[in-house]
Amino acid sequence: MAHGFIITEWTEDQGLIIKLSYPENLSTDLDDMMRIFYAHITGAGSSGNVLVRLEKVRSNVSSYFTGLDSDMPVMINLMLELGEDPEMFGETVLKEINEDLLSYLRQMNTNVSESYEIAKKIKLYMKNSLILLDRLKNLSKEQRLAQIYSSEKARTILEALQESPLSRRDLQGIIEDKLKKIVPNIEFILDPFVKTGLITQDWVEGNTDITLFLLSDFTIFRKPVNKLIEDAKKNFPTPELASAYLGEVKQFFKDYNPNHEDNLKIAQILMNPDNYDYITLFRERAYPLNKIPKSPGQSMDEIGNFLESLENNQIIKLIKDNKDTIWIFLLTDIAIHTFYPEYLIEKIRKERMDGKIEKNVAIQHLEFLEKAYKK
Q: Between 1.10.150.20, 1.10.1200.120, 1.10.10.10, 3.40.50.920, what CATH number should domain 219-336 receive?
């Protein structure tokens, strides 16, 4: 579980200072922050991410540094439980949080007279981000599959296991070699694979490390919303809106061409719990903008921000009726389809004939695939 955020800034006259933190009673000191700072500047002071273990405060820290040469040398530190890895949240979520926080901090530096109000907004944003990170621990199966697709490391794991079963040690070596990144804890990256049933892990007789076997594969794509199309064919919610909606859907899918860039975009959208809630809601029916169900304490401004993002990414479409009431329709649903990896059977046979896979590993994988097929 994430404990909170600490933002520090490097200044020429004062050195490293704590700029903001949430919660304000978060336990830390400058010695700890200096340890993180040194971990960054060891790499020539360039921008980037590090993961630092702080024994004294019993915390792992996922830290992003803008770099010594940046116009605003700040570190954004996410304080985690000892042993936790930021991979559990996926790569893109923390990247977006860091970018948003940096945007607020630049506003604070530019508008000194409004710095107090902006600081309040930053702390509210950090509070909401912690709620979001907590919700990411309870994703649905399709969200976990989207999490895999969203992560460069997880996609590398999937691609490797689509070729052959691998030991955890060999798999870790493949990731580090291909991405040129250290992987301190591969278990966190493997977690969504296990929870969605994509892989199984087992000991193979004679081997000293656990072997990973792929049992299922998946694809991600946009699709029309069948429920809304059927409703529109019955002139719901009105003949005018139904006709406009069917026209929008037809136009979109006439030009739609699934590709990696778009798939990555929609995977990241689906992973976000708030986006997922709205997509699930709009799958069932269209809503007037002023009658969208909202959570307790949720403002219309917050809802507006989510809807704007979904509209910009062509997930929803806003259509006006003849009374100038704005209706929200789900333009494209996001589908994640799992399938039996039949292609692996021929690959295992060929790998075995070429002597690239041990006999007992090949037999065990085929047995797992047979059980998965029967299920």
A: 1.10.10.10
By mean pLDDT, which of 31-45, 106-120, 219-233, 305-319 is the weakest? 31-45
Number of H helices and number of E strands within the chain?
14, 13
Residue 221 pairs in a beta bridge with: 335
How far apart (Å, rounded) are the C-alpha atoms in residues 109 and 4?
Answer: 23
SS3 103: helix
Edge-to-edge strand list for the sheet holding 166-167: 166-167, 211-214, 199-202
CATH number for the region 4-137 comes to 3.30.450
Cβ partners under 8 Å of residue 2, min gap 6: 78, 79, 80, 130, 133, 134
Give the pLDDT score at 323: 93
Q: What does the pLDDT look like over 334-360, one tens digit per residue?
A: 999 999 999 999 999 999 999 999 999
Chain position carrying tokens 């709620």 = 131
